[in-house]
Amino acid sequence: YLPLAEWDCNMNSLITSFEIKILLSVLRQHFPDIENLGSSLATLHVVSREYTGVGMYVNFSNNKILPEDTIRQLGFDGEIIIPKLNSGLGVVVTVDNGSINYLELFTYGDQQWDGDSAGASVIEPVI
Which backbone phi and psi does 57 adopt, to 5 degrees? Predict the structure, then answer.
């Protein structure tokens, strides 16, 4: 378990530690041979955060941190546990030409989520 600190949803330009830990876990699952992903993720610029009621999109500016030919949606086989959510969060990371376009977080079912990650944990899949 990786305990995560509470984060400020109003700071649009800075990536949060919660977002970094999720992205790092997803990318390690799909690109286990790429080194220094953590330091690359820390430099991502957040363009916006869009709250949907049952999740959120975190949109990033153009950044090439993955192989240039990478174009796909990346899922996550681990778990993201938020204490106030019954079933945790799902995640999809969309990559286009090596750039992370956005991180999508969503609840399962219709449970509402305001983006608060207080007490969250990321459980990486056993590979």
Answer: -115, 130
- Mean pLDDT computed over every residue of the chain: 86
Q: Please give the Cα distance from 88 to 91 (Å, whole number).
A: 10
Question: What 3-state DSSP class applies to 123?
Answer: strand
The pTM assigned to this predicted structure is 0.85
DSSP output for 93-116: EEEETTEEEEEEEEESTT----S-
- Lookup: tokens for 117: 């990650």
Measuring CA to CA, how many Å separate 4 from each of 16, 21, 41, 63?
10, 8, 16, 25
CA distances from 51 to 1, 57, 79, 99 (A): 26, 7, 21, 22
How far apart CA 93 and CA 113 sit, in angstroms, is 19
Q: Check pLDDT > 50 for residue 7.
A: no
* pLDDT of res. 63: 82
